[in-house]
Amino acid sequence: MVLLSEPERDAAEPGLAAEALLQEVCALSPTQWAHIRQHRQAHDSTPEAAALALGLIRPEEALQVQAWQQRHAHWQVAAQRPHADWVMRTQPQGPQAEAFRRVRSHYLLHVRQRGGRRPLAVVSPDVQDGRSFFCANLAASLAQLDGRVLLIDANLRRPRLHEVLAVSDHTGLSDVLAGRHHRRVVQAAPGWAQLFVVPVGPTPPNPAELIESPTFARLLQEANERFDHVLVDTPACAMGMDAIVTAARCGSALIVSRCGANKTSDLQDLSAALKAAQVDTVGVVLNDH
User: Fold this and answer.
1) Which residues contact 261 (CB under 8 A, 6 or more apart)?
2) When comparing pLDDT for 150 and 16, which is higher?
3) Does this entry carry the keyword Phosphoprotein (predicted)?
4) Does residue 164 form part of some domain?
5) Domain count, the chain
6) Rg of the chain (C-alpha set)
7) Are the beta carbons of 123 and 238 closer than 8 angstroms?
């Protein structure tokens, strides 16, 4: 079974049409859609209003579609104003962008020396170390080369990548891992032809169990087969074992340390945990952003 369905829309058109949202919520049949379109033509109504009037959906389902439309409108506006942390887009010729290109070169050299690519988990000891900042910009630097890049937000506790990349979080990784619908979980990052992202989606109550599920391992394998590079954002190690489990699933990891914030002992403990999990540690990056 395919776990990652790719986006049908161009990156310049973030968000889903009202009919597509209604279909995701209610899974209507072609016959029902024919009735909805006839009702819309006769009464000049929205898809969810027509479906509600025909008795095909419940009032709460219509409200859910309307709420999702408002969120998509928000992301459409946000996509036109890149987040300040996305320096590869806001300052493509600046010193930070050049620093990410240097990290990219070291990473690609490491991949060639190891004789094969695996998903790369980005880990750090504590919150606010800059994992999402680093993930988004390293992924964008890789997307500037030939090849497709997939960025997966596996921080099921405090997700942030959808904010940095200005993509919708109405559905995502948590839906796939929980066995719910997983259409369009892969989204095109605005402004980047070769960069795709899987946001967290709804924040789940059981993040550790979802990360340890066999479905997550299958998803990473599928992503590695279909994309040239796969980067995975993780929670801070201070929040639990999610990051180590994710890194073990990926097979390789890169440690981010915030300048002047992380203790040497915490970095040593993290490095030791990765080694015990037989994770190939690509390196350590000192973040002063």
Assistant:
1) 126, 128, 129
2) 150
3) no
4) yes
5) 2
6) 20
7) no
Q: Which two tokens stand for residue 13?
A: 């058109």
Q: Are residues 74 and 93 in the same domain?
A: no
Question: Is residue 160 located within the same domain as residue 258?
Answer: yes
Distance in angstroms (rounded) separating the CA atoms of residues 24 and 173: 16
Give the strand order in the sheet containing 229-233: 187-188, 195-198, 149-153, 229-233, 120-123, 252-258, 280-287
| DSSP string computed for 180-236 | S--TT-SEEPTT-TTEEEE---SPPS-HHHHHTSHHHHHHHHHHHHH-SEEEEE---
Tokens of 172: 């995502």
How far apart CA 191 and CA 144 sit, in angstroms, is 11
pLDDT (tens digit per residue) in 227-269: 999 999 999 999 999 999 999 999 999 999 988 888 889 999 9
CB atoms within 10 A of CB 285: 20
What residue type is 70 in one-letter code? Q
**With a threshold of 0.70, does the pTM exceed it?**
yes
SS3 assignment for 158-175: CCCHHHHHCCCCCCCHHH
